């Protein structure tokens, strides 16, 4: 009897607490039991992640370079006291004071102030700042900037990132702090910020302050020393590399280097030589390719012209005497000899003219090559000089900057000296930054707390991702939710070393009780009663054979007459469970070699077995034969239930053939076993062939791994003494 086609509709969800397993824990938005189950299953990895995060936090704390923060204080007054009473300013309103104080803090933390600190401490001169701060010095300049500008920008950014200024509420005393890995260096830079801040503010008021004049005197001396040093360095550099500038013609202020002047002159000479070589080459080419008498030098040669006239005269004489004398006459012979001599002299003269043109061309070519080599050498020298002038220009700019600074300071000093009004500075030093005795970072307590929080988050993410990609059915809900099958019951996982057959001997064991509950669930499948049941799974080793045996054993204990038929001919196992032989069995029946009674094993009164028998050449042909249906119909009349232990669904056609010839199909899946989609593939294959799956059994179920807790086992262990 064929099974009815399966419906595409999802099976109804099973009610909580049905088929003997306890109801779900109360949930508020999320399933707490699933969360507990996931955490329990992943407890070692979760604990490992949290422990690793904690260890990492400790390692980071111990390996982090200590950072020291030096703090100094300055007082900022919004109004300064004036020497002259008439210069006293009006008292500012409160909101203007707050804006003024915030402006002062912005000035203190600005990049301009960082530049003043760099100049005050000379931080850009060497790599001391980079070494003390633990940052790498730049190897190349940033695009569009020089190396000095790049270094200065990096130092300024580092200063801005590590300096801080805090103004407590209702106070005008500002805490100026700087943090670095070096305690003394932190104090030095913090004090440099304070000094630069005070000096910067003072510079804006020095035109009316005597203190400003004293400050400017010191700055003038320093500026003068820097100017003299930079000018000496510029001159020394020019002398060392022989950088000589000549005045630009027609430009009083402009100048050009000696190498550039020589290069320009050599280029001009090369152009003239190249022009001369072109002309000589053209004359020589014409002399070689055309008639020699077409050469201007030949045409203008007086000696050649004289020879041509003599040749013409002798030729005329020969023509005249030829009428009177015969060819071999002495007069005619003399004329011809004279003509040959003149012609030879003419050819020699023309050849000499051609040779002179060739020599002229070769001389012009050599002169051009010599000048080209000289220009190339001068160009190399110019390139080297340009490379040297980069540093020279840097020194020149530095000297110019120093001079401009000196001139500006001198001019300002004159203005201040001429000023009559004097005011005091409204920024006063309260406390200089002392060398800190202990680091303020890292904070061990905070780091460990953050590490624990990170560990909890990582563990949660790991657990969620693993549960999301894990397709294993672990709980009854997974059977209905993931496999979309009605849930029939669970078979508990037996302890390691235990024997399921021995377990089933005890009617009060957890295994016996689980199969009793499963028997009850199967009894609800059909009002007419069960007759033929196929037990299968998606893949091997999921325990379908033991489930088939357990169901049969439970039904037999309930008084039903049960026959177990082992149809897994490729990997038979029922003969091992029943502790009997499989030499003769279903194969002999289907090939009509034996009757089913001849191969029947009767280990118990109500529980009989027909093993597979020998492996046939083609299992599908036997299962599809009419002899199988005859065997099924015959034993169905004598037994209450026939349980067929079928092969796995995937990779074989046997299960589909069997399911199409039997009434009911029970799908067995191993709890907690990742199927990688095999279970869904097996179910889809059965349904595509029009086979209805009556339900699923969750085998090797461990309530502790599923999140049900230990109380689940109590339902299958009543009547047993409690441990302890």
From TrEMBL:
SUPFAM superfamilies: P-loop containing nucleoside triphosphate hydrolases. It is found in: Cell inner membrane. One of its GO terms (molecular function) is ATP binding. Residues 213-283 form a coiled coil. Its EC number is 2.7.10.2. Residues 30-120 form the Polysaccharide chain length determinant N-terminal domain. This is non-specific protein-tyrosine kinase. It comes from Pontixanthobacter luteolus.
């Amino acid at each position: 009897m064929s099974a009815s086609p399966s419906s595409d509709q999802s099976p109804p969800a099973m009610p909580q607490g049905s088929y003997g397993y306890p109801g779900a824990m109360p949930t508020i938005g999320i399933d707490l039991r699933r969360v507990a189950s996931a955490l329990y299953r992943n407890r070692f990895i979760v604990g490992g992640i949290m422990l690793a995060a904690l260890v990492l936090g400790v390692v980071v704390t111990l390996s982090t370079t200590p950072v020291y923060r030096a703090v100094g204080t300055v007082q900022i007054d919004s109004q300064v006291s004036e020497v002259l009473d008439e210069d006293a300013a009006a008292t500012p309103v409160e909101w203007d004071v707050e804006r003024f104080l915030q402006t002062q803090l912005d000035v203190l933390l600005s990049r301009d102030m960082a530049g003043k600190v760099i100049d005050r401490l000379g931080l850009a001169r060497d790599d001391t700042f980079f070494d003390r701060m633990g940052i790498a010095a730049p190897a190349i300049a940033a695009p569009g900037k020089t190396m000095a500008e790049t270094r200065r920008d990096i130092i300024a950014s580092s200063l801005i990132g590590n300096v801080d200024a805090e103004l407590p509420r209702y106070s005008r005393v500002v805490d100026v702090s700087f943090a670095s890995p070096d305690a003394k260096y932190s104090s030095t830079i913090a004090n440099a910020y304070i000094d630069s801040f005070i000096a910067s503010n003072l510079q804006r008021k020095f035109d009316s302050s005597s203190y400003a004049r004293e400050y400017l005197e010191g700055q003038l001396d320093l500026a003068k020393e820097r100017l003299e040093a930079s000018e000496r360095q510029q001159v020394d550099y020019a002398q060392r590399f022989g950088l000589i500038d000549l005045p630009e013609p027609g430009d009083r202020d402009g100048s050009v280097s000696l190498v550039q002047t020589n290069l320009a002159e050599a280029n001009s000479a090369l152009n003239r030589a190249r022009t001369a070589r072109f002309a000589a080459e053209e004359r020589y080419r014409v002399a070689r390719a055309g008639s020699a008498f077409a050469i201007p030098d030949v045409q203008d040669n007086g000696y050649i012209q004289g020879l041509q006239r003599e040749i013409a005269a002798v030729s005329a004489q020969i023509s005249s005497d030829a009428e009177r004398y015969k060819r071999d006459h002495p007069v005619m012979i003399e004329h011809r000899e004279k003509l040959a001599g003149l012609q030879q002299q003419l050819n020699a003269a023309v050849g000499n003219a051609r040779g002179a043109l060739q020599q002229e061309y070769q001389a012009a070519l050599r002169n051009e090559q010599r000048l080209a080599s000289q220009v190339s050498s001068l160009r190399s020298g110019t390139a080297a000089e340009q490379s040297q002038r980069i540093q020279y220009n840097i020194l020149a700019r530095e000297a110019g900057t120093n001079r401009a600074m000196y001139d500006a300071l001198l001019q300002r000093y004159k203005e201040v000296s001429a000023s009559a009004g004097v005011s005091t500075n409204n920024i006063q030093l309260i406390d200089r930054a002392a060398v800190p005795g202990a680091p303020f970072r890292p904070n061990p307590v905070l780091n460990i707390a953050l590490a624990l929080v990170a560990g909890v988050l990582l563990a949660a993410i790991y657990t969620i991702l693993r549960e999301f990609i894990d397709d294993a059915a672990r709980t009854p809900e997974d059977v209905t939710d993931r496999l979309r099958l009605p849930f029939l019951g669970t078979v508990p996982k037996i302890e390691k070393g235990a024997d399921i057959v021995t377990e089933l001997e005890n009617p009060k064991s957890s295994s016996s009780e689980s199969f009793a509950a499963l028997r009850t669930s199967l009894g609800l499948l059909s009002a007419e009663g069960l007759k033929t049941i196929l037990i299968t799974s998606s893949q091997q080793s999921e325990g379908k054979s033991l489930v088939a045996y357990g169901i049969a054993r439970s039904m037999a204990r309930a008084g039903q007459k049960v026959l177990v038929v082992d149809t897994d001919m490729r990997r038979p196992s029922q003969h091992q469970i029943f502790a009997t032989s499989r030499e003769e069995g279903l194969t002999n029946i289907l090939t009509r070699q034996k009757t089913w009674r001849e191969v029947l094993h009767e280990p118990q009164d109500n529980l009989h077995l027909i093993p597979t028998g020998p492996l046939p050449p083609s299992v599908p042909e036997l299962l599809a034969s009419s002899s199988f249906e005859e065997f099924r119909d015959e034993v169905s009349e004598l037994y209450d239930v026939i349980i067929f232990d079928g092969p796995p669904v995937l990779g074989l056609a046997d299960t589909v053939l069997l399911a199409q010839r039997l009434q009911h199909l029970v799908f067995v899946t191993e709890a907690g076993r990742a199927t990688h989609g095999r279970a869904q593939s097996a179910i889809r294959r059965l349904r595509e062939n029009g086979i209805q799956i009556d339900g699923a059994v969750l085998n090797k179920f461990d309530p502790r791994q599923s999140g049900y807790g230990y109380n689940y086992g109590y339902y299958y262990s009543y009547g047993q003494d409690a441990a302890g």
